[in-house]
Amino acid sequence: MDGVLIIDKPAGMTSHDVVARVRKIVGERRVGHTGTLDPFATGVLVLLLGRATRLAQFLSGAEKEYEAVIRLGYETDTGDVTGTRVRNLTTEAQRHTEIHKEEIEAAMASLRGEIYQVPPMYSAKKVGGRKLYELARQGEEIERKAARVVITELTVIDPNGPLLKENEDGSSELRVRVVCSAGTYIRTLAEDLGKKVGTGAHLAELRRTRAGRFKVENAVTLNRLAELVESSSIQANLISADEVLSHLPSIKLNSDEAARTVYGIDLEIEGAPDPPWPDNQPVRLRGADGQLIAVGIYDESRRAVHPKVVLSS
Fold it and tell me: Which of 64, 93, 90, 88 is nearest to 76 (CA)?
């Protein structure tokens, strides 16, 4: 079973939990994902099955899209709803009730484009071979380097009523849509938005609605996946390796070229590609039947493609 499944991850499960569950449901040991979702988050989780697990390196940098609820009024130690309060709610509540629409719009505008984020301590990012959340749970906090991310869109999801939804505990909630580069921490974005308007904030809800070109509308739940396997109709939801990488340029190989490619022999290109390819461009190497044989890397100086990941035997 080789290909890609788009899973609608439920809340309360880690991405690793989902991978383990899918392994059991489909009976395939080789299952991996292209981007972690926090346990409290839901939505698109792209899973690679079988030989397609080798394609993760070509998919992990895809743009992401989210719907999120930012709670204004207090911060938490994790930056999200799973943590404990670390700032005084009453003081923050008094401030956030005075926030105007213009302040929120100005704050969001300042966070769009290229910005730098410091990875939160409660994250899976590794420093010195250890995950930050492991250190955080031991009460340690270490210096982290700020990383460049790009926020393409940060807008309020049009509410049916007031911009801010008031909660009984004095906090309020803002529902937003975010389109961003891979590696963006939405809870850090929530905290930064709070700071911009002068109050504490954290991420109350998070749903990934898109990863690259894979949308939540095309995702299946774990229960639905089990039904598809039971009815032997899972192939309808399994995306082929070639389709998954359709954003990459391709070369159609004849039988001799395909045979050499399987053995890792470079493919020389006659003339310059049109449009031109940059050096190190990943390229799909496809058989006459359209099957993905390998993914190669273009060497501009030699005008050759070296097979990097061979999928076909």
Answer: 88
Is the pTM for the entire model greater than 0.90? no
The reply to whether 38 belongs to the active site is yes
- If one counts the domains in the chain, the total is 3
Q: Are residue 270 and residue 196 in the same domain, yes or no?
A: no
- What is the CATH number for 274? 2.30.130.10
Same domain, 200 and 301: no
- Average pLDDT of the segment spanning 253-266: 93
The DSSP-derived string for 61-105 is T--EEEEEEEEES--BSSSBTTS-B-S-HHHHHHHHTT--HHHHH
The whole-angstrom separation of Cα 308 and Cα 58 is 11
Rounded Cα distance, 154 and 177, in Å: 6
Average model confidence (pLDDT) for the chain? 89
User: Of all helices (H) and strands (E), which one includes residue 225?
Assistant: helix 222-230
Domain that holds residue 183: 64-211
Are 200 and 291 contained in the same domain?
Answer: no
How many residues in total does the chain contain? 313
The residue annotated as part of the active site, out of 8, 38, 80, 242, is 38
DSSP code of residue 52: G
Q: Are residues 168 and 125 in the same domain?
A: yes
Does 56 or 129 have the greater pLDDT score?
A: 56
Could you tell me the two tokens for 137?
A: 């749970």
* CA–CA gap between residue 23 and residue 225 (Å, rounded): 11
